[in-house]
Design brief:
Layout (H helix, E strand, L loop, with lengths): L4 E2 L5 E2 L11 H19 L4 H14 L13 H4 L1 H4 L1 H19 L1 H13 L3 H16 L4 H18 L5 H15 L7 H14 L9 H22 L10 H4 L6 E6 L10 H4 L7 E8 L2 E3 L13 E6 L1 H9 L3 E5 L17 E5 L11 H4 L1 H5 L1 E8 L2 E3 L13 E6 L1 H8 L5 E2 L13 H16 L2 H12 L2 H6 L6 H14 L7 H5 L2 H19 L2 H10 L7 H16 L4 H19 L3 H13 L9 H7 L6 H26 L4
Antiparallel strand pairs: 1-2, 3-6, 3-7, 4-5, 4-6, 8-11, 8-12, 9-10, 9-11
């Protein structure tokens, strides 16, 4: 440990000698594993949950029970993330959030919000932020955004507003709301567990609510006054999907010649997908239009086919006298048969945990499963229209899908997808809303009640021993959340088989894999070393300045890796830095937690940003343009708020 001198001006001075803390082989190995994890998180060569498992395996192989004891992690410690209270609590909260969503209560609130918003942009922003923010304090903010993306998209289309103006505010507001309570985001739960281990100070349910309210208000004012003006209209108000995705030149109408070799074949057999990048998306015969499922429909001479293909491919068909050009559909209306009342073109967002992640359209057999054709898709700001079948699909990609109404309904009801428009007749368990709300109130309430004070007061008034026992009672969120899961199944809010589908298993494996990494960073002295380096800034910065540096550093790291991973890596360093400069370590824990849970700079640092990336038509720079000023603003607000409520020294 360093010694330190706190000057009268609040600047921390460090003595010239540092105590000889040096880099050991153990630290080098752990830092190497951290560097490998960062590279894999950023490049996505492996899914993030698989990367976390790889990290866990490396820690154990190079640990106390492995080939060499470099990481000092035993097998028991390496697998302890699966039994960690934070992991189990997050699992339970995901199930509870699913139960709430299945009742439709959030969607009902969203429809009220739509009726209020109308065509006024200020009202639309107020409704979007006013609903997503507070709700995210009590339901994990990731499913809140997944639920509200279709609602907000519909508000934009009905209100003649570009969805680009509303969807980033939706994501950001959910992050603000996530900092209202302990259960607002999985990051808070994980940070609470790390804080309990390092400082014996877990978060209470409303530990930082007062600061969360300030962040929510300041952030909301920014989005409503400055933020939306910085957002371009990436999705024009009046344009439809065909024009929005600029696929007019990839859609062609052709007529089947009498002597064409595809006459008598089925639609599925007609085109060799190995040779041609093309799909038959509609068949028109005798003024009757057929859309998916058309794979087994036999092609006849004179049929008009609507193809998704580039000009070169179409020209090859024409040159071979297989087909004759007829024209090109220029709007979505031309691709949606009049006799089909529901949408046939929809945007589908691929969330984390979807079976499509890491697959291609060909390997996933998406078309066969859902009788659906993908006309184009957006991936990390790029619109892909050619050679789609072999492209690996990533979290946040948005597919432009044409399908029959029943197929769209199946997509809407599947947790593997977020359909960016609400179904016409959603199947919600609205009769279970009172049960779900009461259960969530119980989960929160039993944690928030100060049982010790209640028991002591009752014991003092009555002298009854039972009340004295109550004063020692403490119900952690882990217990109430699991009890809530049981209650939701018992009351019919959730079916027993649905609790497994509700869990985002990649999140659970991510937590289980990275928790031992934080332990290794502490045990090998890596946190001490990094803390010493950061503590050096105390020689020319006040404690408040060092705290601000940690906030900014965490925000930058979270912008390129998982928010949960950044908390695990940064909290041990933050606590060690605080100890070395004589600061309040809990203040540093809060700064890291807030920074990790409010990652505005990039679309890849936080899953809610990925959810709105495609439907908003955003580019990577849009998040920087709007998020950078917001991140700087909230860095000042948060650091000053921590100083005011908890003190930094």
């Amino acid at each position: 440990m360093f010694g330190q001198v706190l000057h009268s001006d609040g600047v921390v001075g460090l003595p010239a000698q540092t105590g000889g803390l040096g880099v050991t082989p153990d630290m080098v190995v752990v830092f190497g594993i951290i560097l490998l994890a960062l590279v894999l998180f950023v490049t996505e060569w492996l899914p993030i949950d698989v990367t976390a498992i790889l990290v866990m395996v490396l820690l154990m192989v190079l640990g106390a029970d492995g080939v060499v004891n470099f990481t000092q992690i035993s097998t028991a410690e390496g697998t302890s993330g699966f039994s960690n209270s934070a992991t189990i609590t997050v699992l339970a909260m995901l199930i509870l959030s699913s139960g709430i969503s299945r009742t439709g209560v959030v969607q009902i609130v969203g429809r009220k919000m739509s009726a209020f918003a109308g065509e006024d942009l200020d009202k639309q922003l107020l409704a979007t932020i006013g609903v997503s923010g507070p709700i995210s304090g009590f339901i994990n903010n990731t499913p809140v955004v997944a639920i509200l993306v279709p609602v907000v998209s519909d508000i934009a289309h009905k209100g003649k507003t570009s969805p680009s103006k509303l969807l980033i505010p939706l994501s950001y507001a959910s992050m603000f709301g996530g900092m209202l309570t302990l259960i607002g985001t999985s990051t808070n739960i994980l940070a609470s567990d790390v804080s309990a281990r390092l400082l014996d100070h877990p978060f209470s349910m409303f530990e930082f609510t007062q600061l969360g309210i300030i962040v929510l208000i300041v952030g909301s004012i920014y989005l409503m006054t400055v933020g939306h003006r910085l957002l371009p209209e990436r999705v024009p108000v009046e344009e439809d999907y065909v024009q929005e995705y600029a696929i007019e030149e990839y859609l062609t109408e052709v007529v089947v010649n009498d002597d064409s070799p595809i006459v008598g074949t089925t639609v599925e057999e007609a085109i060799d997908h190995v040779e041609f990048d093309a799909d038959i998306i509609q068949v028109v015969r005798d003024d009757e239009e057929f859309i998916e499922p058309i794979g087994q429909k036999t092609i006849r001479a004179g049929d008009l086919l609507r193809l998704r293909a580039d000009r070169d491919t179409v020209q090859q068909f024409v040159d071979r006298e297989t087909l004759t050009l007829s024209g090109s559909p220029e709007t979505a209306a031309e691709l949606e048969p009049d006799e089909v009342p529901d949408r046939t073109l929809v945007e589908v967002v691929v969330p984390r945990g979807s079976f499509l992640v890491g697959e291609s359209l060909e390997s996933s057999t998406f078309r066969q499963r859902y009788d659906a054709t993908v006309l184009a898709f957006r991936s990390r700001g790029e619109t892909v229209r050619e050679d789609m079948d072999e492209r690996r699909i990533r979290v946040g990609d948005t597919l432009l899908v044409q399908a029959a109404p029943d197929s769209i309904d199946r997509l809407s009801g599947n947790d593997d997808f977020i359909v960016a428009h609400e179904p016409e007749e959603p199947d919600y368990r609205s009769e279970k809303i009172p049960h779900a709300v009461a259960i969530m109130a119980g989960v929160v309430g039993f944690v928030a009640v100060p049982w010790g004070a209640v028991g002591a007061a009752l014991a003092g008034a009555t002298g009854v021993a039972a009340f004295e026992a109550m004063s020692a009672l403490s119900l952690p969120i882990l217990v109430t959340a699991l009890a809530g899961v049981v209650a939701m199944v018992a009351t019919g809010v959730l079916k027993p088989t649905e609790i497994y589908d509700a869990v985002e298993w990649d999140v659970i494996f991510l937590l289980a894999g990275i928790i031992p990494l934080g332990m290794a960073l502490e045990q090998t002295g890596g946190a001490d070393l990094l803390g010493s380096l950061v503590a050096a800034t105390g020689s020319y910065l006040p404690i408040l300045g060092v705290l601000w540096v940690f906030y900014l550093a965490t925000g930058l790291i979270t912008g390129v890796i998982s928010n949960n991973a950044s908390v695990v890596l940064m909290l041990p360093v933050a606590v060690e830095t605080a100890n070395q400069i004589g600061a309040n370590p809990f203040a540093f824990v809060l700064a890291v937690t807030f920074a990790a849970s409010t990652a505005f700079l990039t679309p890849v640092g936080y899953q809610t940003n990925l959810f709105v990336y495609g439907p908003g038509g955003y580019k990577f720079t849009d998040f920087v343009r709007v998020g950078a000023p917001l991140q700087l603003l909230l860095s000042v607000v948060t650091v000053l708020g921590i100083e005011f409520f908890w003190g930094v020294a």
